[in-house]
Amino acid sequence: MSIAATGLKAELRRAERARKRRAFLLVLPLLLFLIVTFVIPIGDMLRRSVHDTELAGVWPRVAQQIGDWENRSRLPDEALFAALAADLAESRENRSLATAARRLNYAIDNGRSLVFGTARKLPDSAGSWKQAIIEAEPRWGDVELWGAVAQASGPLTGFYLLQALDLKRTAGGDIVSVPSNQAVYVDILLRTFTVSLVVTLLCLALGFPVAYLLATLPTRLANPLMILVLLPFWTSLLVRTAAWIVLLQEQGLVNEAMIWLGLIDQPVRLIYNRIGVYVAMTHVLLPFMILPLYAVMKGISPAYMRAATSLGASPTRAFVKVYLPLTAPGIAAGALLVFILALGYYITPALVGGAADQMISYFIAFYTSDTVNWGMAAALGAVLLTATLILYALYNRLSGSAGMRVG
Amino acid sequence: MSQTDILVSFQGVQKTYDGENLVVKDLNLDIRRGEFLTLLGPSGSGKTTSLMMLAGFETPTRGDIVLEGRSLAKLPPHKRDIGMVFQNYALFPHMSVEENVGFPLSVRGLSRAEQRERVAKALDMVRLDGMAQRHPAQLSGGQQQRVALARALVFEPKLVLMDEPLGALDKQLREHMQIEIKHIHESLGVTVVYVTHDQSEALTMSDRIAVFNDGMIQQIDAPEAVYESPQNSFVAHFIGESNALHGRIERIEGQDCAVRLEDGAEVRARAVNVAGAGSRTSLSFRPEKVHLAPASELYPNALPAQVRETIYHGDHVRIRLAVAGNEEFMVKMRFRADRPIPRAGERLEISFAIADCLALDPLDKPVRALAEAS
């Protein structure tokens, strides 16, 4: 019996194997595509947020010697100063001094001038490099400065991640908040989540009645309405956003209409501020709320509402107790979709928002293309990804019992 | 029957959806307190629309429905206090069995303790105790059916409506539930209006059956009366099986009449629904009331027939005959050792009593085909 059973299992496995292989071959092209275009770049980007060899690349001797600096409350000894002198001289030779200066400038106030100044004033030879360097630039006698150099030497650094959370590490290794005049990133992160949340709620408030109408109308009427809902999808994002600029500007249609109606005397500022961001983003993201809601509502039999009223529930009560809970999966899917899409919004806030309305992706783009600070861009990206995953986990935990789990 | 025995009355009710065709034409119907009334008919006959008007989900285009002397015209469904069991049960999928059954009690603001007690009693009645915490998706079709029943009865409505509640169950379970619903009706004394297109279900369960066709009640009577004395050809052919032979009335003699069939033979029939001498008529015969024997004192009518086919059914044999131009004349024959089963092609005589041969209105289309096509 057992021999027959194992034989049967082996046969089953053999029969399944060909099927599995075929299934795998079918997904293989996409899998490779995703690995090359998605998994590897994102992995590399995340690595950049903690992996830092920029300084070590141009100052290899310092990076090696600084590992031997053990008592970090006292200045390092002669060997490290000698290494610094050799590295300074060599990087001046091969014109890589600017890289070192830029990298140290992130970590040290006036780091750029410090590096260039030291290199300029450094003698060709010295009995004690320690003395010579401190003579050339007295700040090298500061233990904290060396702490910053040690942290910048990599290869692993928490510098960018900490900075993305408005934190820094002191020379002694303690993590402290940066001075409040430098703290910007937590605000930006909170702003990103606030804007996304408000847009999600606006989409839900505007989309729910539309989805309900679409789901309850006869097909003959629902189809043309559905086309109107999908229309924004068929227009370029830039065109849609530009249209909002035309509508919302101070001499725009909305302001003129409100003045004509006597609602306001002076044009109201509706664009290049938060209102503009909310209006334009809600418009762009609305279909992502309506479509999942519609799909769920379409599947709710009208018999449920009838049953509820026949059992004595008023229409309002039947709606709240029966219809609304049944649409919960649609609300959950739509809200999650809109929220996560909104988190990464970049073009719309950049075009219709003011300086105080830019979201985190704006700064990621800024660091990637304007200042070429890939470490910082990667760290902001990592923080956004982590925060989103935490929120998602929290959301799933809260909504799991209500049957609203997504994914 | 006194006025207080009537719970609901439809008074000249009409309903049209498109302004052209009347789905319900002039419905006048009194529903008695405590009875089990079945609205039976093919789909599109107006039975479900009538039920929905009673429940409040449709409004009559003309006429009024009166419940205990009060017009329902202005009363929304949730204030009518009418329990309803839906075709696909319509159990709330996000609520447990207990919450589903407790729903009508919680909207009526009953205390938690009282709710629990009455839910437990209702679940006990439909033999579902122990299932209270399950969700509808975890129940079988029959169990869902019982939950729907418990939910419609738990708030003790005077009237319970059932819209083809057994349609989704398999045959065996359906027959079992028919008996169970019947027993619940008897023990609670609640008035039930039951909609179905299944005539055997109607015969099994009802105190009275209202046969619907074309937006009108064709006949309303006890099951035996509807089966034994149909008032027109539609009822004769929709309820149970009937054979039809067509002919003309020769003369009317009291409650009987003489009918000349299309092939020239003359038979005597009970004149149930005929216009007068010379008019067309359709004779209706139940398959089990026709005898494969020459005329006798009990069965004075006789007609020649030829066997086309015999079909074995275990407890009986069905014999398809050609009689007076009808090639589909069915006769049921019980087994008897002394009576051989006729073979195909054999010629013989069939006989029947006058009371078992009903002269009804002329039948233009086969009713069964009409009912099944719609």
Brief overview:
By secondary structure, chain A is mostly helical. Chain A has helices at 2-50, 54-58, 60-65, 78-93, 97-107, 111-121, 129-136, 143-152, 159-164, 185-216, 219-230, 237-248, 253-260, 274-298, 302-310, 315-343, 347-352, 360-370, 374-400; strands at residues 167-169, 175-177. Chain A folds into two domains: 54-157, no CATH class; 185-400, MetI-like fold.
CATH-scheme architecture of the largest domain in chain B = 3-Layer(aba) Sandwich
Main sheet: strand order of chain B: 6-7-8-3-9-10
The main pleated sheet of chain A reads as: 2 strands, antiparallel
Instruction: Bin the helical content of chain B.
Output: 10-25%
Helix/strand order of chain B, N-terminal first: EEEHEEEHHHEHEHEEHHEEEEEEEEEH
Main β-sheet of chain B, in a few words?
6 strands, mixed
> Count of DSSP helices of chain B?
9
Provide the number of structural domains of chain B: 2
Describe this protein's structure.
Chain A has a two-stranded antiparallel ribbon with strand order 1-2. Chain A is built from 19 helices and 2 strands. In chain A, helix 10 (185-216) crosses helix 14 and helix 15 (302-310) packs antiparallel against helix 16. Chain A has 407 residues and is an all-alpha fold. Chain A folds into 2 domains: 54-157, no CATH class; 185-400, Orthogonal Bundle (MetI-like fold). Helix content of chain A is 72%, strand content 1%. Chain B is built from 9 helices and 19 strands. In chain B, the strands form 4 sheets. Chain B has a 6-stranded mixed sheet, sandwiched between helices. Chain B is elongated. Chain B has 374 residues and is of the alpha+beta class. Chain B has 2 domains: 3-228, Rossmann fold (3-Layer(aba) Sandwich), CATH 3.40.50; 241-373, OB fold (Dihydrolipoamide Acetyltransferase, E2P), CATH 2.40.50.100. At the A-B interface, helix 15 and helix 16 of A face strand 6 and helix 2 of B. Chain B: Keywords: ATP-binding, Cell membrane, Membrane, Nucleotide-binding, Translocase, Transport. Chain B: Part of the ABC transporter complex PotABCD involved in spermidine/putrescine import. Responsible for energy coupling to the transport system. Chain B: It comes from Oceanibaculum pacificum.
